[in-house]
Design goal:
The complex is a heterotrimer of chains A (322), B (353) and C (327). Chain B has 353 residues and is α/β, with parallel strands linked by helices. Helices cover 26% and strands 23% of the residues of chain B. Chain B contains ten helices and 14 strands. In chain B, the strands form three sheets. An eight-stranded mixed sheet of chain B has the order 8-9-10-5-11-12-14-13. In chain B, strands 4-3-6-7 form a four-stranded antiparallel sheet. In chain B, β3 and β4 form a beta hairpin. With 327 residues, chain C is mostly helical. Chain C is built from 13 helices and no strands. In chain C, α10 runs parallel beside α11, α10 runs antiparallel to α12 and α11 packs antiparallel against α12. The mean pLDDT of chain C is 80. Classes of the chains: A mainly alpha (322), B alpha/beta (353), C mainly alpha (327). At the A-C interface, α5, α6, α11 and α13 of A face α1, α6, α7, α8 and α10 of C.
Chain lengths: 322, 353, 327
């Protein structure tokens, strides 16, 4: 799929932690204050707001599809290959289904996959990345090795190979397969940040106080990494949306399920483009793009939040080359 | 100050010293702010001082007091979100604030050079030392390979480094050597003013002292002025003519080093003295200054040091003191406003006659 | 030197992992896909094809699993990938070799273009912070990076091939022509390659621009860039020698690794355009359950990505003096 990996530097460089305000006072308290800052940051960053709004819209559609679309997405009872009209907002497919209904109901599956993979892959990545950083030594060596190997093996071909053997991958199978193959990138990022945090003062203080490693990890480190964890979730969600659709498009998903990717599969198989049934191909793809863009925008905004140097610069009357 | 022989240039020519106009640098009311999402933060608040030829001024203060920002503001090296919000910086009579990089290029390095804190960060990691000397010289019209090579070797020898290291990369040199090669680079055109931002902080005490001695020797030979920023009061007290103490972006005390050292007028300066041990002299209890600097996004209404001041009075918390002239020194403290009438803080150079 | 050995060891390990996946995946799946597939096979199955299937699925029960594994590794090492089922009776090797040049051309050129344009635009955007390029670049390219490869292909076909009829909608060349090294034929090939290349370029370039821009922004904040300004160096020199050089280096390996994604995208683009490259073959193999071909193509793609990373590592070592002395 499109190179959706986050756009900060190579994955083994830690994302910069929020800089202090110049000549500042106390370092901002992490944890609870971190979440509040996050919320404020989302509201003030335009990209984040657009992304968040789009995401909210899709979530609403996924939660209440019946309210928005009154037709049964699977029913093949309508006249075939109709153009858009008041009755069928996006027309009908060559098999007699209402495209609008399919699009609306398909949102649910796509979001489930996105959120499912997003959460699961991030959790796995966090466990592995942070464990590697903290237990160090042989643990780090072997975990990093596994991560790196998985990172290098080309993802989509691997997915294709696995999906081929699995045959007709339904939603749950897709979630599992995508999670198992896709956690490595974010694991690297999380490990890098955990490593850079390891030697920060507040952790030294905790160790000196005699806190156990598990406590340190859960109570001190993970809240500090909130911003990055959210970014990782978004990365993995975006990856899931694009790759799941891709797999479904080439027929490796369950073709009888209702999803944007499967819609495109049927559209392609019925030569929608060549026969003038444009909306059938345009609409589901546009939805994938929009949902993907929502995740990508939010993700990028979080990069900016974590690294203020990347934020848009106001046009100050300064010379170039800031 | 002894002004040495005519200044050496790459290529062996000499530049005659310009007529003594009294001041090399005149900073007036300089203010620097950072523009953040939540508003602007004033990092440097109306700072003024002057520097004559060959003078050495030390600027001291805690981390975050704005001294580095001040330095970059003077050298016109700020980057967004920082910007100069007011004041002038007159170098050789010409105000540098507001000039473009192209307009400044003529003066940069030839008349004014900079030494930064960490040579590891200030040197381009992927080019050799020699290459970095070379592009500085080429940028100012020296193109002959022999001249470049000759001058590069010359400045390295000045700081005690074997010229064979011109082909080394920064990471191949030791910390002390890196720092000294930065100073060598600053000497390429024997400028009139060298600005140094904590050049010794990354070194051990022995290397620190040897570097300072080196700097003073070069200064004696070539007669350039130095602005030296540091948090180490004791280090700079031995070597500077003027001393400026900064706190929370403001000048708190400014005057001749000996005077400030022997009898600090500002409670903060006094506190700083107490915090530094002396190898000689009687052993005494070290006292720190309790508390920490204010958040400049929300500075306290009155004197900025009031929350931590051992001699704080009630008016200190509501009114902000100006700089008062006392015995040829400037102090920003209400304790000293009765001694003389409040002097205008901007009456030219701060150095005593 | 030790670093180089470790890297090579890592590559060998990854290759081994890919091979092992190839070996074990079919044996792990429930049911007996080989039997199911063979029953679908129309016409007699030659002993060779049967053997290929048997090897792929471990139906050869005389050998124990470990020795099957060893045999498999040996076969791969000697280039015995078996016979293709879809392109029967061609050998897998033959099919793969025929497909490689098409993908090489398409992906190769697109990647080079994307890299050059992407880094160039990224560097400029960061250099002119606050300028127009920099303010529109991030949102535009972020959205572009979310475009599904296959969909943009379909949209391009829709607009340029179906509606406007400017360019052909499918295949590597006009199937009525015979392939030859003549100018008209080459022109025809380029004509067919244009839309797929645009599709790949559009989706790939966005992320590269942004990565480059972000590293560049971080690099511009470094002390040595400030020092270069302090020395009065001309702007272009600072941008290229001080900033860009340092910004590109850490990204080289990352770019190479993202080649895996470009390849993935190429698979879909080739599918949509029926472009006869490696990706198209892979998907055909999938559709027709030509497992030997599929496995071989998967290995090929993995090896290619590994080679690219190796090249990037070498380039980094050449251009970054710090790695050289570190060993």
């Amino acid at each position: 799929m499109a190179m959706l990996r986050p756009v900060t530097a190579a994955p083994d460089q830690p994302t910069a932690l929020p800089e202090q305000a110049p000549a500042g006072g106390q370092p901002a308290r992490r944890g609870r204050a971190g979440l509040r800052r996050l919320a404020h940051a989302v509201r003030s960053n335009r990209k984040a707001t657009v992304g968040a709004v789009l995401l909210a819209l899709f979530t609403l559609v996924a939660l209440f599809p019946g309210v928005i679309a009154h037709d049964d997405p699977n029913a093949t009872i309508y006249p075939r290959s109709l153009g858009p009209s008041a009755r069928h907002l996006f027309g009908t497919t060559a098999l007699g289904q209402d495209i609008f209904a399919q699009t609306v109901w398909g949102t649910r599956q796509v979001l489930i996959i996105a959120v499912g993979v997003g959460l699961l892959a991030t959790v796995i990545a966090m466990l592995i990345g942070v464990a590697a950083a903290f237990y160090g030594g042989a643990w780090d060596g072997s975990l990093s090795l596994i991560t790196d190997v998985l990172l290098v093996i080309p993802l989509f071909p691997l997915l294709i190979v696995i999906a081929t053997y699995v045959q007709n991958a339904g939603t749950m199978v897709l979630v599992v397969v995508l999670t198992l193959t896709g956690w490595s990138y974010t694991a690297r990022q999380l490990r890098a940040q955990a490593l850079s945090l390891r030697n920060r003062d507040f952790l030294m203080a905790a160790r000196v106080r005699g806190e156990r490693k598990m406590y340190i990890v859960v109570v001190e480190i993970i809240p500090t990494m909130t911003s990055l964890l959210v970014a990782c979730f978004l990365t993995n969600a975006l990856y899931a949306v694009l790759f799941a659709s891709g797999l479904q498009f080439i027929g490796l998903g369950d073709p009888n399920s209702v999803s944007w990717g499967t819609m495109l599969y049927w559209a392609e198989n019925n030569e929608a483009l060549q026969t003038g049934q444009y909306l059938w191909a345009v609409v589901p793809g546009a939805c994938i793009l929009t949902l993907g863009a929502a995740f990508a925008l939010l993700n990028y905004a979080f990069d900016e939040i974590g690294n203020p140097a990347l934020r848009p610069v106001r046009r100050i009357r300064a010379k170039r080359a800031g | 100050m002894p002004s040495g022989p005519a200044r050496a240039e790459p290529g062996g020519q000499t530049r005659p010293l310009p007529p003594d106009t009294g001041t090399v640098l005149e900073v007036s009311d300089l203010s620097v702010e950072y523009i953040t999402d939540t508003g602007s933060v004033v990092a440097v608040d109306h700072v003024s001082f002057g520097l004559g030829p060959g003078e050495f001024i030390g600027i001291v203060g805690e981390s975050g007091c704005g001294k580095s920002t001040l330095l970059f503001g003077i050298a016109q090296l700020l980057s967004p979100p920082a910007r100069i919000s007011g004041g002038t910086v007159c170098f050789r009579g010409r105000n540098m604030v507001g000039l473009t990089d192209e307009e400044l290029a003529a003066v940069r390095w030839k008349d004014l050079s900079v030494v930064m804190q960490s040579a590891m960060n200030a040197l381009n990691p992927v080019t050799t030392i020699g290459a970095q000397f070379r592009d500085a010289m080429r940028a100012h019209g020296v193109t002959s390979k022999e001249q470049i090579a000759g001058r590069s070797a010359e400045v390295l020898k000045m700081v005690g480094i074997d010229p064979v290291h011109l082909t080394s990369y920064p990471h191949q040199l030791s910390g002390g050597m890196r720092q000294r090669s930065m100073i060598a680079m600053a000497m390429l055109f024997t400028p009139e003013l060298v600005i140094m931002d904590e050049p010794t902080s990354a070194l051990d005490v022995v290397a620190q002292r040897s570097l300072m001695v080196q700097i003073k020797e070069l200064q004696a030979e070539f007669g350039f002025a130095v602005i030296f920023v540091t948090h180490d009061m004791s280090l700079v007290s031995h070597f500077s003519d003027q001393l400026m103490v900064m706190y929370a972006g403001r000048v708190e005390e400014l005057g001749a080093t000996r005077a400030v050292f022997d009898s600090p007028l500002h409670p903060y300066t006094a506190g700083l003295m107490e915090a530094f041990p002396s190898i000689r002299g009687p052993r005494r209890q070290l006292t720190g200054i309790p508390g920490s600097p204010p958040d400049l996004a929300r500075p306290p209404p009155g004197c900025r040091f009031a929350p931590r001041c051992p001699k704080v009075m009630t008016r200190c918390e509501t009114a902000s003191p100006d700089l008062y002239l006392v015995d040829g020194r400037q102090v920003r403290c209400f304790l000293h406003d009765g001694a003389h009438s409040p002097g205008s803080p901007n009456d030219g150079t701060g150095s005593p006659p | 030197m030790r670093f180089a050995l470790r890297r090579l060891g890592f590559f060998a390990l990854t290759l081994w992992a890919a091979l092992t996946l190839n070996f074990f995946l079919p044996r792990l799946m429930p049911g007996d896909p080989a039997v199911a597939m063979m029953s679908k096979f129309r016409g007699p199955v030659s002993p060779q094809a049967f053997k290929a299937l048997a090897v792929a699925f471990g139906l050869n029960n005389q050998q124990s699993l470990p020795s099957q594994y060893v045999t498999y590794l040996g076969d791969v090492a000697t280039g015995k990938f078996g016979t293709s089922l879809y392109f029967y009776p061609q050998s897998v090797g033959r099919v793969v070799l025929d497909a490689i040049p098409w993908t090489l051309g398409l992906v190769g050129i697109t990647t080079v273009l994307a890299f050059i344009l992407g880094t160039g635009i990224g560097i400029l955007a960061a250099w002119r912070r606050g300028g127009r390029l920099d303010s529109i670049a991030p949102p535009v390219f972020v959205i572009m990076s979310a475009i599904p490869y296959f969909w943009i292909g379909m949209m391009l076909i829709l607009v340029f091939a179906v509606q406007l009829k400017w360019l052909p909608p499918a295949f590597g060349f006009d199937i009525t022509l015979t392939p030859s090294l003549t100018l008209p034929f080459i022109g025809n090939v380029l004509e067919h390659a244009l839309l797929p290349a645009i599709a790949l370029l559009v989706t790939t370039i966005g992320t590269w621009i942004l990565t480059m821009r972000n590293t560049m922004v971080t690099t511009l904040a470094e002390d040595y860039v400030r020092m270069a300004r302090a020395k009065g160096l001309p702007g272009r020199r600072i941008m290229l020698d001080y900033a860009a050089r340092n910004a590109i280096l850490p990204n080289l390996t990352g770019f190479a690794m993202s080649l895996g994604f470009v390849v993935g995208g190429a698979i879909l683009v080739e599918y949509v355009f029926n472009y006869p490259g490696v990706g198209y073959m892979l998907l055909n193999a999938v559709t027709y359950e030509d497992y030997p071909l599929m496995q071989a193509l998967f290995l090929l793609i993995t090896v290619t990505v590994l080679l690219a990373i190796l090249l990037a590592d070498i380039a980094t070592a050449i251009f970054d003096p710090r790695t050289r002395t570190a060993g």
